[in-house]
Amino acid sequence: MQFTLLPEWAEQDAVMLTWPHLDTDWSDILDKVEPVYVALCQQISQVEDVVIVAHNESLKAHISNLLKNHEVDLTKVHFVVTPCNDTWARDHGPITTQNAEGKLSIKDFTFTGWGNKFAAELDNKINKVLVNELAAPENDYDVVDMVLEGGGIEINEAGTLLTTTECLLNDNRNPELSKDDVEAILKDKLGAKDFLWVDHGYLAGDDTDSHIDTLVRFAPGNTLVYVGCDNENDEHYSALAKMAEQLRSFRTPSGEAYKLIDLPWPKAIFDDEGYRLPATYAN
Questions:
Q1: CB of 164 closer than 8 Å to CB of 246
Q2: Between β-strands 95-98 and 104-110, what pairing exists: parallel, antiparallel or unpaired?
Q3: Does residue 87 contact residue 24 with C-beta atoms inside 8 Å?
Q4: From CA 94, how far away is CA 123, in angstroms rounded?
């Protein structure tokens, strides 16, 4: 029976976080980052469980003390201890699909650090450990021989999958796969029925090769929420204008135009070395 990826707003049981540690890029600002993770746990645990990937047992103990001191209900927190390179759980984490009978199939695509830009060999092993330690025995575990990050795809309630050509067809991901090959795999593994390929749009400083979750998101009722740039002097203006034009041309399977909602354009943000960061309200 076909397993299908559910839209972002579907009911879920838990949120996965991979905790920052001293061997990640967050090392010099852990004192600023950890409070954000604690706040996430405080909010999430009020409505659902939290799965936390901890780099080692020492970090697990540290996180437990942090959460306990901030009155997080630890019965809602499930730890998995396994080495990790970084924190980007949306991209290296499992992609869970469901069939009509409610059975789950956990898809484990290959994660390569966004086209081998960063070390990812540890992150690519996390999903197997998660499944072995937390998944119910009746759930299916499916290792997929294709490079794919969770942030590179969006799907809606009709089974239409939204993505960017810059990411999914990039030679640094699956150079041996054609567009038709990619679509065939995503139909088989994620239950996609139709595809919308975004050919324009980018954010300066983005390491993901234009992940769709930084640019355009689905919302219920055939709605697309997207990043719009209203500053003609900004370097993004032309590319995002072309993206908006393409979005206006997209049609639902029944031939209707999508409802479009443009997000505010954020003020430019730069890191300490003067490089622009990929600020977006879509992500």
A1: no
A2: antiparallel
A3: yes
A4: 11
| Nearest alpha carbon to residue 1 among 124, 129, 127, 103 | 103
Cα–Cα distance for residue pair 99/138, rounded to 1 Å: 13
Say if CB 241 and CB 249 are below 8 A apart.
no
DSSP secondary structure string, 190-242? H---EEEEE-----TT-SSSS-GGGTEEEETTTEEEEE----TTSTTHHHHHH
DSSP state of 1: -
Is the CB of residue 260 less than 8 Å from the CB of residue 248? yes
Q: Is the pLDDT of residue 146 over 90?
A: yes
3-state secondary structure of 269: coil
59 token code pair = 């970090």
Compute CA 223 distance to the chain's CA centroid, rounded to the nearest angstrom. Answer: 19
Token reading at 188 = 């088989």
How is residue 152 annotated by DSSP? Answer: G
Of the candidates 57, 61, 54, the residue with the CA atom closest to the CA atom of residue 80: 54
Q: What percent of the chain has pLDDT over 70?
A: 100
For the whole model, what pTM was predicted? 0.96
pLDDT at 22: 96
Q: What is the pLDDT of residues 217-273, one digit of tens each?
A: 999 999 999 999 999 999 999 999 999 999 999 999 999 999 999 999 999 999 989
Please check whether residue 206 is in contact with residue 214, taking contact to mean a CB–CB distance below 8 angstroms.
yes
Residue-range domains of the chain with CATH: 1-146 (3.75.10.10), 148-283 (3.75.10.10)
**Tokens 């993901």 -> residue:** 208
Mean residue pLDDT of the chain comes to 98
Mean pLDDT calculated for residue range 162-174: 98
Structure tokens at 251: 């049609």
